[in-house]
Each structure stands twice: as C-alpha cells, then as structure tokens.
C-alpha cells in the first residue's frame, strides 16, 4: 500500500508537470524560451561528434520501430499467457503513445524549432511523440523485467540500460533539431505519469489473475 501511494504521488506530479508545461507553451511560450535555448545550445554543441549515434538511437522511437517492437513483445506475453501484462502494455502503447499523444499535439499546435533539422518531421512539436512513446514502450519493460529475469543484479543492469536508452531517445530529438527540450520533458511526463499511476492497478489485477488461476 505504501509503495502504491508513492507511485501514485509521483505519477500525479508527472502529470502536473505536463499540465504546467502545456499551459506555459500554449499561452506564455516566451517564458520558457531561455530554458529551451540554453539546453538546446548545450546539446547541439556536441555536433558533429554524436550525430551518427543520435541518428541511430532516435530510430527506436520512430512509429514503425515502436510498432514492430510492441508486436514482438506482445507476442511473447500472449505466448506466455501473460494476459494482464499484455493488456497493460497494449493500453499504454496504443492508448497513450498511439492515440493520446497525436491528439494532444493538436491542442497545443506548437511549431517545431526553426533551427536545422537533421531528420524530417511534419507534425506539431509538443509533446514529443518519440519521448512519450519510448517512455511507455521501454518504460513498461522496466517494470516487467522481473517477470523474465530472476537474477536481481541482471534485473538492475537491464533496467538501468533501458532508462539510459529512453533518455538517449529524448536527447536525440533535441540534438537533431526537431524538438524543444520542453517538448521532450512534456512527452516523458505523460508517459511516466501513465506508468506510475497505472502500475499499481496492473499489480492488483495480476495478483487477482494469479489467485484465480491457482484455484482453477
């Protein structure tokens, strides 16, 4: 119960952060310009050394890649009769990354940065779809790692690598010039809010499912 309250509190904080950023972006965009400019200049100062890496890592947040990885993981979960996990995973990737994020972009209609783009993008900027998608897709896997791997040390290593991977995808969007830092933070906040608020619900459903399965 204690962990549930913590998760719900932090999840709520993430959504409050998203709502606050969205309000500023929509009505007082000039307020956040100094922050966006400072972070963008710092990250893009790494050019061209990191260009190859960020062009590579950003592909793991592309819609097609996300769909392929999602379907592969979904197949594994269904094959292993992990139905509760499959439902939670699908709800996040389809509902939040696939439907909610594109729709919410239409509310803010923020134009992308006017600096040079190293990849082609045509939709609105806030919140970053790559950031939301990677947080939901790979973030869910962070929670599900213990299901597949029993060794605690291996669990922590894989979870850390997935966390760094998510962060790298977000940074790549700034480095490549297609997103403001506030877009990335907004996307991460949406995805993280979803994960932290729904994980306790998933845990409860998983416990009930396992209990019923044992009875049968």
From TrEMBL:
Gene3D superfamilies: Phosphatidic acid phosphatase type 2/haloperoxidase (1.20.144.10). Pfam families: PAP2 (PF01569). Keywords: Membrane, Transmembrane, Transmembrane helix. Residues 86-199 form the Phosphatidic acid phosphatase type 2/haloperoxidase domain. The chain crosses the membrane at residues 7-25, 60-79, 86-108, 128-148, 160-178, 184-202. It comes from the Bacteria. The keyword Cell membrane does not apply. InterPro entries: PAP2/HPO (IPR000326), PAP2/HPO_sf (IPR036938). The keyword Transmembrane applies. PANTHER family: AT30094P, SPHINGOSINE-1-PHOSPHATE PHOSPHOHYDROLASE. This is Phospholipid phosphatase.
């Amino acid at each position: 119960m204690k962990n549930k309250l913590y998760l719900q509190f932090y999840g709520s904080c993430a959504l409050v952060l998203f709502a606050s950023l969205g309000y500023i972006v929509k009505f007082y965009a000039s307020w956040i310009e100094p922050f966006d400019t400072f972070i963008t200049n710092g990250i893009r100062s790494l050019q061209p050394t990191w260009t190859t890496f960020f062009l590579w890592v950003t592909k793991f947040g592309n819609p097609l890649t996300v769909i392929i990885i999602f379907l592969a993981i979904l197949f594994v979960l269904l094959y292993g009769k992990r139905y509760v996990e499959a439902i939670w995973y699908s709800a996040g990737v389809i509902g939040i990354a696939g439907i909610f994020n594109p729709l919410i972009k239409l509310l803010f209609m923020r134009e992308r940065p006017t600096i040079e783009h190293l990849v082609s993008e045509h939709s609105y900027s806030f919140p970053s779809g790559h950031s939301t998608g990677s947080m939901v897709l790979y973030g869910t896997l962070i929670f599900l790692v213990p299901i597949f791997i029993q060794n605690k040390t291996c669990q922590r290593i894989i979870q850390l690598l997935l966390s760094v991977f998510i962060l790298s995808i977000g940074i790549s969007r700034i480095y490549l010039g297609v997103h403001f830092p506030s877009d990335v933070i907004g996307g991460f906040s949406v995805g993280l809010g979803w994960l932290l608020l729904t994980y306790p619900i998933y845990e409860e459903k998983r416990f009930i499912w396992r209990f019923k399965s044992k009875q049968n």
